[in-house]
Design a protein that fits this description.
about 550 residues; Threonyl-tRNA Synthetase, Chain A, domain 2; five-stranded parallel beta sheet; 3 domains; Rossmann fold; Ubiquitin-like (UB roll); globular
Length: about 550
């Protein structure tokens, strides 16, 4: 017998009792299906069994590990149904590209005629499998055998990926004989995957799935509200294809073949070309006096604004960078969260009245003394930094609220040029396992916070949900209002950031609440071969996080 502790209560169970059996006993205490369990802080699938005294914590779709498991399992189920309906002989590959809104954009290639009618048949087949509650089986195979299997099934991206894996064995999942590799855990059987929809879109389709906030509701897909973001995401896919590096295995091949320096230079050149295009568009309309740059945390807004300023100078303009953060109200006057902590994400953290007064005066040609916010003291200061705009002067303003017209309410709309910046990674682990943009930004922030603020990875992970909540409220709703979008992700950066992030993640104590996330990120980074940072250009956005930027960020 083993003593199992759940929510502070102890109970004895026979050795070998599955966690699913225990979950059934406690299911009525949860509003949503139990999908996953942690055993003494380690994630486990429900088919695993009790082997010793332990503490359990159950996860549902309301929790991050639970909803990630649901999404992963739903993608696997969709793949099984799609191959069954269309026929393996008619499919070259099916690629999960990126998230768009609350769904996954998926693009199949082959001889099929991709219509909504076909997707309706695939959805119906998925529902059949849900009703049948088919077990999602898991088996461990030798890595060399897995590579041969991937080659046989024409999963060449996985074949390339595992040629660079140090592990001796690989876990493969199967649904009714359909086998694949997935990064992370699965639900116990197909009966758990109750909520999904397939919608034809562009050259592929959307797999719409519930989100953590409401795991029983399929969110609507509003294509017209995501067109600009979709085009940037699609362009990022083309960049990856142009560089011949769409997946981690391909990146590792470039690294091992000694071609990484050329890849870095090409990637940086593509970004500089895009920045030059944005500057040229601004330069063609001299009525624009305010370049408003917004984006989520760790998207590289600061370095982007510096590089854009250089390109604006090449267009004959005189740019002046302004950080909206310098208009923070004094810390004691900042709004607070429910727990009493300061809410630095809220618009009310800014002295909007003073900001608008200063910007209006500058637009009128007046001399304005510019503020500087001191984060150590939590107060705004004035140090005799005066500014006056001439005919060729332009303000490059950067801050998370810059696309929200409430920030710049007094400025004429035709005087503003809006830019949305985000790190929309074009790299995936393989065709069925995508790299979330949020993971890239979290690792960026972790590395930068450790370097510039002395913050631990544990602290960064702990505050990340609050940061993400602020982005959902204050940034993402305004992204489609941008005149142009810029993708700050580089195809090579995770191979570089790996060197900095891994020691920080290993430093997180095993008993801490953040350890589970640290372990997930460490497993994720293990797919990459490492790359030193010495040959990264000094003006690269990556330097904003690793250090030694020529812009001193």
């Amino acid at each position: 017998m083993a003593i199992v502790t759940i929510n502070g209560l102890e109970k004895e169970y026979p050795i070998g009792t599955t966690y699913q059996e225990i979950a059934r006993e406690h299911q009525e205490q949860y509003e949503n299906d139990i999908l996953l369990v942690s055993v003494n802080g380690k994630l486990r699938e429900l088919h695993k069994s009790v082997q010793f005294d332990c503490g359990l914590r159950f996860f549902t779709g309301k929790d991050k590990p639970g909803i990630q498991t649901y999404h992963r399992s739903a993608i696997f189920l969709m793949m099984k149904a799609f191959y069954d309906v269309v026929g393996t002989e008619n499919i070259e590959k099916v690629t999960v590209h990126f998230t768009l809104g609350k769904g996954f954009y998926i693009e199949p290639h082959g001889t099929m005629d991709l219509t909504q009618e076909l997707l309706t048949r695939v959805k119906a087949r998925m529902q059949e499998y849900v009703n049948q509650k088919i077990p999602i089986m898991k088996r461990s195979v030798n890595t060399d055998d897995a590579i041969e299997l991937f080659h046989k099934h024409k999963m060449f991206d996985k074949e390339r990926l595992f040629r660079y894996r140090r592990v001796s064995r690989v876990n493969l999942y199967s649904i009714g004989g359909f086998e694949d590799y997935y990064y992370g855990y699965m639900v116990q059987n197909t009966g758990y995957i109750k909520y999904f929809d397939l919608i034809s879109f562009d050259d592929g389709f959307m797999l719409m799935l519930p989100q953590k906030g409401n795991p029983k509701e399929i969110p609507p897909f509003q294509a017209d509200q995501k067109q600009k973001l979709f085009q940037v995401l699609k362009e990022s896919v083309k960049w990856g294809e142009r560089l011949n590096v769409s997946h981690v295995g391909a990146l590792n091949e470039e690294i091992s073949a000694g071609r990484i320096n050329e890849l870095i230079l090409i990637q940086e050149a593509l970004q500089e070309k895009k920045i030059a295009e944005i500057a040229a568009r601004i330069g063609r309309d001299r009525s624009k006096k305010f370049v408003m740059i917004a984006g989520p945390s760790s998207s590289g807004k600061t370095t982007f604004s510096h590089r854009l300023s250089i390109q604006l100078k090449a267009q004959g303009m005189i740019p002046h960078p302004i950080a909206v953060d310098d208009y923070f109200v004094n810390r004691v006057d900042s709004p607070r969260n429910a727990d009493g902590s300061y809410n630095y994400e809220a618009l009310e953290c800014l002295d909007m009245k003073q900001f608008n007064q200063d910007m209006t005066d500058l637009l009128a040609g007046k001399v304005v003394e510019m503020p500087k916010y001191q984060f150590k003291t939590g107060e705004r200061e004035y140090r005799g930094d005066y500014l006056q705009l001439g005919d060729d002067d332009i303000l490059v303003i950067e801050g998370i609220h810059c696309l929200n017209d409430k920030l710049s309410y007094s400025l004429p709309k035709d005087s503003k040029f809006r830019i949305y910046v985000s790190a929309l990674t074009q790299l995936n682990i393989d065709e069925h396992n995508r790299i979330p943009t949020t993971d890239c930004r979290l690792i960026r922030r972790m590395v930068r916070d450790a370097r510039t603020r002395g913050a631990s990875a544990q602290t960064t992970i702990n505050m990340w949900p609050t940061v993400r909540k602020g982005e959902e409220s204050y940034i993402f709703p305004f992204q489609e209002s941008a005149d142009m979008m810029f993708n700050s992700a580089t195809v090579y950066e995770l191979a570089v950031l790996k060197q900095y992030a891994e020691p920080l993640l290993f430093g997180i104590p095993r008993e801490s609440p953040e350890y589970m996330e640290a372990k997930r990120l460490l497993k994720f980074l293990d797919y990459f071969l490492g790359v030193p940072s010495e040959n990264i250009p000094k003006n690269s956005i990556v330097r904003e996080f690793t250090g030694n930027s020529c812009f001193k960020v």
